[in-house]
Structures are given as structure tokens and as C-alpha cells.
Amino acid sequence: MTSKAGPPPPAAPVIPSEETEKNDKLPASGEIIPTKHHKYEAIKLLGKGGFGAVFLVKREDGESFAMKCESYDVKKQVLSMDCKVLRGTFLIQSPHFCSVLDRGKAIDRFRFLIMKLVGKNLWDLRIEREPPKFSLNTSLKAAEQCLMAIQDLHTVGFLHRDIKPGNFAVGRPETNEFHTVFMLDFGLCRKFIGETQTKDLRMPRTSAPFRGTTRYASLAALKQIEQSRKDDIEAWLYMVAEWTVGALPWRRLKGQDKEEVLRWKEDIRTGDAHDEFMTGLPRREFDTIMSYVDSLEYHSIPDYDHVHYLLQHACKVILYL
Ligand SMILES: Nc1ncnc2c1ncn2[C@@H]1O[C@H](COP(=O)(O)OP(=O)(O)OP(=O)(O)O)[C@@H](O)[C@H]1O
Ligand SMILES: [Mg+2]
């Protein structure tokens, strides 16, 4: 994600540092990158993350796209997961995911995929505001769209496991998609449905290495318990609270402060921090959403419509304020 002035961006997924630094093989601005069918010119860097970088590129016919690259040096390849997930969401025609148009590799340097270009991510959009928060109406509308994206991702059998504002973006006004939110970045996804015909849930591992971003990670993720659909929704709740209020109570803690963030998250449920967390949120509805999410278990299928209904209720209430 691009770095900007203002509050520090949430920590990137926890991965070994040598993987994050080896980006020297990635394309330079102006470089022409060919595939079997097309040529793309790298125009500018849109975002740089743990596993590679995303560039704005122009095809030979002048059309713009996003190119997600993954350096050959990374130990854990994740671009293929992006492809797998986006193939699934394409099949169900979800409006919340980018279409993949092309892919290829620059031998010994990087692999890439070419996808639909969208607009700014929701982290950048928020922090360029003064104060750095969305209006309640915008917050709740964005929350609804992100929830629908999460539901669609779950429908195709994947958990995201890194729900955070930098992994959602609005569409471009030029394509009339400014009011559609797109989900990005499937590098930490995990298939939660088994490979058999019965579509059973995979058995949870007794312990699961931490995946995600500490600030938004669910209680289970922080405790290294296998994540399930409820955990994406819990992370969504923290993300929505942050962009509605402007900050989370644990905003000053870093990616490595998992124990302390876990204590905060427990404290907003049962302790003194409850009020601090809820101030500025539509309290009745968010209290209900949090209790509902906490009532879910590994095997639960979340009732997305119930959460959606509560958001819509909160939207109606603000109309009368
Ligand atoms: N299709 C796209 N169109 C426009 N911008 C995009 C697109 N895909 C990604 N970006 C931008 O690039 C940033 C990084 O993308 P993404 O999250 O997929 O990569 P990443 O390497 O996994 O990043 P990180 O490790 O920071 O999560 C996004 O936050 C977004 O701003
Ligand atoms: Mg990302």
C-alpha cells in the first residue's frame, strides 16, 4: 500500500523481512512488458506490498489496467491464489472483484497478472480526509458493499484472512463504478471447503500460524486458532469502526504487539474499553453485530442478511437524526 502523511498505516501481513525487500526485479516505469497476446507499458506504481507490487499499465490500444507482480525471489508464491480466487468470483459474476484479462512472466524477474483497474483503496481515501473519517452514511454504505464482497468470496469457498481498508477499493468514476467497492489481494486466502464433492468444511488445524494484519485480526487469528467465515466478519467490524470513528483504541500498537491488541479486543467486549470503542458508532446496531459475531463458531455459516439488515437499520436511523 502507498504510504502517506497522517497516521501510520496498519502493519502489513507478517512475513519474513527478506521477502518484503527483494523488489528490485520488478518493472521500471516506461518498461514494456509483453505477453503472448499483448504489450503493456508500466506507467506508475499503484501500491507495494509484502509480496510484490501493483502497477498502472497501458495496453498497446491505450486501455489502462492494473498489473500485479510477484518477484521470483519470494519464498511463498501467492499470485496463483489471486488467480484461483478471481476465477471463482468471475464464475459467480460478483460485481465486487476485478476481472483478470491476461497473465505472464518476465523470466527470472517476476510473474504478473493483468486485471481491471480500479480507483483508490479505502485506507488512502479515508486518510486524505480531514478529520480522517468517512461520514456515517458513507461508512455504512461502504460497510454494506464490503460485507457483500466477503459473502461472495465465502460463496466460492475462500476465506480472505486479511480484511483491511487497503484491501478494498472503489471503482473508477470513468467506468461509472465509483459507488462499487472492490475486494483486492487474495494472497492470504485459504480454501475452507474440502476438495471432496460433499463441500464439507475442512477440519480445523489444532494451531494455525498467524495470518493477517494485527490491527484488524480477529480474536481467533490473534490466538492462532484456525480461522473461519466469522473471522472475516469480525475483522470487517474493526475496519468499519475505524473508518466511521476515525481511529481504533489500539491504533498506536504495532504489528508485533499481538498480545496487547488481543487484550484491547477482549476489553471492548467485557471491560472499560467498550464505551470507547462504541462512541461514534450506531451503538445499538454495532452492539448487536458484535454479540452476533461472537456467538458464531468455527462451523457456523454467518447470517450475512442479518448483519446487512442491522446496517440498513443504522442507515435509516441516521436519516431521522
Ligand atoms: N486492480 C487494481 N486497480 C487499482 N489499484 C490496485 C489494484 N489492485 C491493487 N491496487 C492497489 O495496490 C495496493 C496493493 O495491492 P494488493 O493489496 O493486491 O497487493 P499486496 O502486495 O498484497 O499488498 P499488501 O501486502 O500491502 O496487502 C492496493 O491497496 C491498491 O491501492
Ligand atoms: Mg493488500
UniProtKB/TrEMBL annotation:
Segments of this protein annotated with the region Disordered: 1-30
InterPro entries in alphabetical order: CK1_Ser-Thr_kinase, Kinase-like_dom_sf, Prot_kinase_dom, Protein_kinase_ATP_BS
Domain Protein kinase intervals: 40-321
Sites where the protein binds ATP: K68
TM stretches of this protein: none
This protein's UniProt keywords: ATP-binding, Nucleotide-binding
Source organism superkingdom: Eukaryota
SUPFAM superfamilies per the UniProt record, alphabetical: Protein kinase-like (PK-like) (SSF56112)
Any GO MF annotation of the entry: protein kinase activity
Pro residues biased stretches: 1-13
Record's protein name: Protein kinase domain-containing protein
Originating species: Panagrolaimus superbus
